[in-house]
Amino acid sequence: MKVTVIYGGRSGEHEISLISAAAIVRGIALENEVTLIGITKEGRWYLQPESELERIKSDKTAAFKIFEDEKNEVFVRPAAGKKAFSTKDAQIETDVVFPALHGTYGEDGTIQGLLEMAEIPYVGCTTLASSLTMDKEKTKVVVKDAGVPVVPYICIKRSELNDSAMYDEIFQRAIDELGFPLFVKPCCAGSSNGASRANNKKELSYSLMEAFSWDDKVMIEKAVNAREIECSVTGNSVTFSPENDFEAVTAYIPGEICPTHTFYDFDAKYNDPEGAKLKIPADLSEDLLETIRSFAVKVYSSLDAAGLSRVDFFIDRDDGNIYFNEINTMPGFTPISMFPKMCDVAGLPFDKLVLLLLEEAVERFNAKERLQTSR
Asked: Which spans in the chain are helix H?
């Protein structure tokens, strides 16, 4: 199989992508041919040298770099299938793409739409599911409708921010209805970029300005005295065929995040090896573990997810209530990331996980190809 791994990107999670992609590449079986495409922070695509692939495979701690060589700039041709990628001088033949991209332009449906137009199989959610799950508010609307409890919240848009009277009304309503402390998050940013906790009016005002520097829509959530529980899920929720067991929607053993920071922020996730302790399985009863797995499958399926996702929950320490927090459709694959760790504890080691995701991608593409598109 000819696998093209794409990484980097125009995202606040660019550097995380370089680490995730390196781990993914090391997990791809040797019999597969791997091609690397790096996307700069400016959004330009470049075919990477063979030496970079060899460097990553020989050093288990290394992260990718992106080499910008004009003659290796990559172009994409719509409807060209396996030959959709090319440089000025060479064709890049591809059977399946693993877009190891996080956040904006990676998980938001943009690259998925491009790959759909190019007619190439790719790992992960479809354009629609990626776009939907990137928006925290719209995700909560769907998940709540599916019967899974969500943390109470209020959203504010930039147009409302620009209207002082409306802004003041929403600001006060958030305080009156949700109470302090509050969490403030950009609706469409990942890895806790722009997210912060507000304990009073002054902090809430500052937190809103910080979040609006990342997005045009911001979520204000009630702070829950929570245990943070995560669950890895794989499978093609829409196209699963009983003939292909590997496509079945499967929730793995839930784990628990025990942050040593104020909350599980960007530094705790990626920069500080001691930023959080990971417990797999989470210290919960068998019944609660099964409830989390059941909720994770329900969330995943209600959003028409495909390939993989990490579904995150809160358990309120005060009353024991379970709340859906968020879904990450291209979770981190770094050495300290929860998604592959939970799969591994459940009996799916890293190399088998990568193979499963590639097989799922090809099968979902084949299912779509069988659909009628014209009369």
From this structure: 14-27, 50-58, 110-118, 127-134, 136-145, 158-161, 164-178, 201-212, 266, 286-302, 338-345, 350-369
